[in-house]
What does this fold into?
Amino acid sequence: MLVTRIRVLGFRNLRTQEVELGPRISLLWGLNGSGKTNLLEALYMALAGRSCRTRTDRETIAFGEPMARVEVELDDAGEVSTFLWSLARAGDRRHLRDGAPMSPELADRRPPVAVFLPDRLSLVKGPPADRRAHVDGLLAALWPARAEARRRYGRALAQRNALLGRIRAGIATEDSLEAWELELAASGIDLMEARRDAVELLAPEFASAASDLGLPAEGSLRYRPRSDASTREGLAAELAERRSADVERGYSQHGPHLDELEIAVGGRAIRRYGSQGEQRAALLSLLFAERRALLEARRNPPLLLLDDVMSELDPDRRELLSARLAEGPGQTLITSTEAAHLPATAERTEIAMRSGAAAREVGGADAADQAFAA
It folds into this structure.
């Protein structure tokens, strides 16, 4: 799956325009404030239906504009699809694929997207819920049939929590929890097994990428489930032991919804002890490990959106990162303040950015200047 072009209207500081992307690496380069990151965000918006930078999507509407609109064309082995996202100041929102409202079925047919933003390191240093959701998204891409375990677990957890509230209110008894605990345990064990398999698959490549990107000690991933159970019966028994405490609190305090993915360097959790630079490198390492896992599983590799990844890397590290981007199929959009930050050995399409406008460089910088002038 390749994104071939993106059209924007009224989105942040971007001018109304259409930008054609390359099939492998597209380098967006220009001064700070030229709109590079905004173009990445716009692309993410069209595919995911939400921003990767803010929880307030209305912020993406340019000053003085009545709405923001982004269209993305996707080529899947010759079959072209169009994703559209728009938001009006009046509140009207649309997220469509080929004119149809986005549904779970349509969403499953979009390319996976992996995002690196220097100011959004919550995946590494944020709460465990962010990492759980990320791993669950990966296992769904790796093994679609196993994704149902997370949905089943979520439904059973919601039902058990609702029942805990009814028991606390005196309109149900603790015995009524047993049926939902059995369902919660069955789906919970399946979910734990899938998460463990995914993390074990990622761990070796994460360590290798972490070394390439300059982390000072060995990088590691470790799945830390809340439960010690290895069978459905064992997890059900743990839940039963906690019924009274859960009734008192009004929610379930045990189970896979509280699991953790520990990202560490030299055996120390990077969310607590890592520097900003180490956290950046760890996030990149995780994204590269996921990309390799998807390639080896013959799944659609993720579309990589990498914002300002080169600025803190020395020339040797830039070469190593470029070599990883060149591995196998897959598409990458990468931003930089200077085109020279991406080593010349990396085959790429260069797109110069200036004051919210993009110009694809076919004949070098002079051609880009002519395009801006036009």
